[in-house]
Design a protein that fits this description.
Blueprint: H1 3-11, E1 24-25, E2 32-39, E3 47-54, E4 59-66, E5 70-77, E6 92-98, E7 102-109
This protein binds zinc ion (ZN).
Zinc ion binds next to strand 6.
């Protein structure tokens, strides 16, 4: 996927979730719960949204996943880690896909969204 393809996908406003979101026990990561729903869109992008919440660690992630490219956009709450460029990202941050780093480039703290 080229950067421009990603930007076009992200800008597409026809994306929607058209089914109920049900949190379920994540058997591989106790005591986490998770959900996964399909994202429908007019260009028929192969997308799903996954959510993951760990009550013990107090971490929450919402991720947009492209079936061919993996995680392309995500919001992380409650966990801090490093960018490929080794800057620290803070406990509230977004990830977005870039051609060079896949989804590893964190944008900025998402305080304005919360
Ligand atoms: Zn993160």
């Amino acid at each position: 996927m080229k950067q421009q393809d990603f930007e076009t996908l992200l800008a597409d406003i026809t994306k929607e979730i058209n089914e109920p979101i049900e949190w379920k026990e994540d058997k591989d990561h106790y005591p986490s719960v998770e959900f996964k729903v399909e994202v429908i869109s007019e260009p028929k992008y192969p997308l799903v949204v996954k959510g993951s919440y760990n009550q013990l660690a107090q971490t929450l992630t919402y991720a947009l996943i492209h079936q061919g490219h993996g995680r392309i956009y995500a919001l992380d709450l409650g966990k801090d880690h490093h960018n490929p460029t080794c800057s620290t990202v803070g406990r509230k941050h977004k990830h977005r896909w870039t051609e060079s780093f896949r989804d590893k480039e964190d944008m900025y703290r998402m305080i304005s969204l919360l």
